[in-house]
Amino acid sequence: MAFALHINYLDRPYQRVLNLEDAGSPGIPVLGLSRHTKLVTPDIEHIHPGVLEFGFCLRGALTLNSNGRIHHIMPGQIFVNHPGITHRLTTQPQGLFLYWMHVRLVAPEKRALLKLPKTEALLLCKKLRGLPCTVTANTQHVRQAFLRLFQQYDTPPSIYRSLCIRQASLNLLIELLECSAPKNRPTDSERIRSIIARMRKNPEGTYRIDDLAHQAALSPTHFINRFKLATGLPPIHFLIDCRMEAAKKLLRGSAQPVTKIALSLGFASSQHFSSQFKRATGMTPKEWRLRA
Fold first, then answer.
1. Considering the entire predicted model, what is its pTM?
2. What is the pLDDT of residues 126-136, one digit of tens each?
3. CB atoms within 10 A of CB 162
């Protein structure tokens, strides 16, 4: 049976669990930062009565079991645990770095969330209850909002500091809602089509699988599989094909030396370019140019 997890407040370089209610932000009992320098034993299955929890994975990867469903959270992704939902992080590896926050979703007449007027507090709580379990797209502003909130907390205590913490907390919640809105969440296919178009237009660019997977909001393995479904080729082979097509146009339509063409298309040397070109066409670039 799941139980309500007790919160231990502390403030250390690699583990910060801060009470923002004491800092002038009612309804925000926890602002957290965790950097794992070693493998951590996961918490047992638990719930947060009346409290919504969300976290932002900055580095590493974690596995969330939420209400019996498994979610793999990658860097740049957000997880959400709703009030009363049984959950636990089943994997918390060495190197994991994440931000997290708790928000009380209670009736405004009992506790005014961030001292907002009743109608605004009701609207904000309603929208927060509608968040999905994971958010994968356009999360950069959430990361910046977390950082800004920690910066405000670390300023000297004052009435102005309390105001800034409250404003930064509200900004973080709004950024969370905005990045999870359907209008801001292109599908996997749309993101992959955008990457394919960019590779065709700029074949000379450098395209790392990890970077492309992050742009598509997918794991590297999932991204490669989806990319192959869309193009019939793995990303690296597709990029070589794009470069070969661009090379043919330059060989046919210009008098540029082969070495210049090779370097302009991102190849490390003319020898590497020539070997790739011959593998693709059965001819060296010079032979192909003569025939063309």
1. 0.62
2. 999 999 999 88
3. 17
